[in-house]
Amino acid sequence: MGNMEMCPMASMCKGMAEKPGTGILLMIPVAGGILILIEPRILVWLMAGASILIWFVMLFFSIFIRKRSIRFSDGGR
Fold first, then answer.
1. What are the backbone dihedrals phi and psi of residue 74, each rounded to the nearest 5 degrees, phi first?
2. Count: domains in the chain
């Protein structure tokens, strides 16, 4: 068992750690948590925003699925 392959997750994490600016992205959830502790009403706004975003994703996904199903039911025309 001399030559074992390196875990792909380790190489991906190493690549992310070497990129500049990833530390800032990791601070966003921490800052959000601190804001929620200071002003809990922010949580309501975040939940509302997430609900609206999920609604848009579901809407566009349903339109995509509808177009795909029409394409398959027409025999590829």
1. -85, 0
2. 1
